[in-house]
Design goal:
Elements (H helix, E strand, L loop, with lengths): L1 H10 L15 H11 L11 E6 L3 H16 L7 H13 L2 E8 L8 H21 L2 E6 L17 E11 L22
Antiparallel strand pairs: 1-2, 2-4, 3-4
The structure holds flavin mononucleotide.
């Protein structure tokens, strides 16, 4: 069991919508992923993660919103037709798109960075579980979704931290691109 958990963590990976095969992820599985996300650690139990899930026809609405907003917000000299098209295609190729939302505790019991960290833990839970269940996905942070995009009709104190694209795929496990962990740690022993 312990080894299975470690394997699941190591095998979590980003699978991009261009690799999705068009098959839907069952709603029950999406609910299970959210339930797993909901077990993340959270300082003072503020549980700041919220999710908004787009599927079916709502995807067209989201795809149009993203591509229109990209065009509106990007400085003209940085505009890319390819990125504009990708905004649309990524959404319609996905089975479900999960908006990742942080709910700021109105009484500010903990610093905001701790709430962002807790939401990130929730996303990591979801991401590991999705990979382990054989689904593909990745966390994307397009400029038009980070903040308070109108399409989400966010409540007070909520902020969107990006989208998790979810779908089915047939890719195997891809090699990890990482530097040596030993370059990222210091051990103090005395
Ligand atoms: C907070 C966060 C934001 C991310 N935003 C993007 C993004 O906007 N576009 C993108 O292609 N990948 C994004 N990624 C995914 C990373 O590119 C990906 O995790 C990285 O390449 C490592 O690959 P792996 O997830 O397969 O290990 C994001 C990841 C995190 C944690």
């Amino acid at each position: 069991m312990k080894l299975e958990v470690i394997e699941a963590i190591k095998n979590r990976q980003s699978v991009y919508p261009k690799f999705f095969n068009g098959e839907s992820v069952p709603l029950g599985a999406v609910e299970e992923l959210i339930e797993i996300a909901n077990t993340a650690p959270t300082h003072r139990l503020t549980q700041p993660w919220r999710f908004a899930v787009f599927s079916g026809d709502a995807r067209q609405r989201l795809a149009k919103f993203l591509s229109d907003e990209y065009k509106r917000l990007i400085p003209p000299e940085k505009y890319s037709e390819l990125k504009h098209k990708k905004r649309y295609d990524n959404v319609v190729k996905s089975s479900h798109i999960i908006a990742i939302i942080m709910q700021r505790d109105i009484e500010k019991h903990v610093p905001e960075w701790e709430e962002i960290a807790a939401v990130s833990c929730a996303v990591q839970n979801l991401w590991i579980a999705a990979s382990a269940m054989g689904y593909g996905g990745y966390w994307s942070t397009p400029l038009e979704m980070v903040g308070r995009p109108a399409i989400l009709k966010l409540d007070e104190g909520q902020r969107c931290l990006g989208l998790f694209y979810l779908g089915n795929h047939e890719l195997g496990i891809l090699p990890k691109v990482r530097g040596d962990y030993r370059d990222k740690v210091k051990f103090f022993t005395v």
